[in-house]
Amino acid sequence: MVPDISTGGRTYGLLAYRYGPGRRDEHTDPHIVAAWMTELAPDPGRDPTATLKQLTDRLDLPVLALPKDRRPARHVWHCPVRTAPGDRHLTDAEWAEVARRIVHATGIAEEGDAKACRWVAVRHADDHIHIVATLKREDGRSPRRHEDGIRAQVECRRIEKEWGLQILNEGDRTAAQRPTSAERAKAERTGRGEPPRETLREHVRQALAGAANEEEFFRRLTEAGLRLEKRLAPSGDILGYKVALPGDRNRDGEPIWFPGSRLAPDLSLPKIRQRLAAGSPGGEPASAASSAPHTSRPASARRDAIHIAEKAVTVLAGDDEAAGAAQLIGVGELLDAVAQTAPTSTRKELAEAARAFERATRSHIRAEQVDHRALRSAARGIVRAGNALGKGEDGGATAMLLSTMVLVAIAAVRWHSARGHAQQAAAARQTAQHLRAAYRSASATPMNAMREQGCQLPALVRDRYAHTVEAALPGQADDILREPGWNALAATLAQADRAGHDPDALLQQAVEWRELETADSMTDVLVWRLRRIGKLPATADLPRTRAYPRTPPPQPRPPKPQAEEPAVRNDTNSARSQGPRR
User: Fold this and answer.
1) Bridge partners (DSSP) listed for residue 81
2) pLDDT tens digits, residue range 222-244?
3) What total of structural domains would you count in the chain?
4) What is the pTM of this model?
5) What is the pLDDT of residue 167?
6) Are both 439 and 291 inside the same structural domain?
7) Edge-first strand listing for the sheet containing 238-244
8) What is the rounded distance in angstroms from the CA atom of residue 409 to the CA atom of residue 413?
């Protein structure tokens, strides 16, 4: 059960939409299920003589009774309450009980208070109600609604437990502010795919990913096409910033600005400065700055990030909470960097993964003064290397990195779960799902090429590598040999063999590197580990002449019996070989 509290200034407009047909005629049978005093609340949905104007005037009466200079500008309190998908449909009487408990818990109308605020609960769908109240009591005072959102959440958790509904995760006030219903309605009306708040938050996060300093962060914002305005002190120092989308204006034609703190708690300028100070990235990684001739810059930057991401997994498995929290922040930046430079085939899934993980980067555990410079440097290298292609070495390196990032997301789930961070653990799980989907797309081409190469290996070579697998993983060899990726693993072992590695020792090292139980495909994980450890290309090589020095030579075949040569040959070549007649 999810409450979502907001405030506004027009009671009539809010009620008119709730009693209207909705944008897609989804509102059916709108009616009041509960009110401050049922006999005083006219119901335009059930009473043909009642009007929206009458209901509005009754609700606003305590506000209108005050002098104009004492009337609050935003006097409307709005709280939709929705059951979770899959929950049973509550009756009108049950929804009335929910509404009374919510207004009591939030301080809008405590039980037994005859001077409380006026309110109504309107139902126009099976799965939710809208509670509308005016924020002046009958005695002219304002209600005591401190932390009303938190108190509404707590009461909803109690109702869920008592009524056998799905028990949702409790919030901890570290989440970014969600778009209001008015913002969502405007986005739909103007044809935007999402409210501007969501778009701006993503752009700001991406501008921050791997930024070396404040100046670079602001430059990236303007390069992304955002309107930027800085708040300056008389001395000229920057005190804050706000951003707006071009074309997003209010009814007066002015840009709708969002300060960083309204986008997310960690995007205020002071928080950004703390992050830049704690983890300023160094110079561009050497391999990204001067890659080998056969490796592109995006591929090299992704290979550098793999090693750093693996270290983050180790830190998250440890007991240092501050270090773990810092690593999560750095991983969030790395995901933002990968998402904005990803090939088209995986960009959407990676953007969703980065958005989901944004929730997992924030908790009440402080990460200040803890170094996450390596992750920020990896993010910076990926951004500076530019967009990756979805094929060749770029495609293989992207798949290799995503395979590791799935492991990082799983480590984040465990880290948050061990500390009771339900919201963040759920966000990390969602991230892992998006990363798996992106990996499947990114790995399709390079893995298919490796499988094809593995199918072309001689039978004796494949058998020898099967024995290699049985020696390294005696209890899991049968499962590995039955996986679709076995041919790719065999091709990788052959490629390592040609590169001068000992396949048996290299596979043993890959197996001992980290557990395989959480892997969706053990062969895929082993393929990328082998290529990572052995510094092999991220794609299959296709040599003109295949040489397998460790393959035992085939057994000699018995000589075939010589056929008796005919005395006379009829073909032209034979006739010519006999020479001229004398």
Assistant:
1) 3, 129
2) 999 999 999 999 999 999 999 99
3) 4
4) 0.75
5) 82
6) yes
7) 227-232, 238-244, 258-259
8) 6
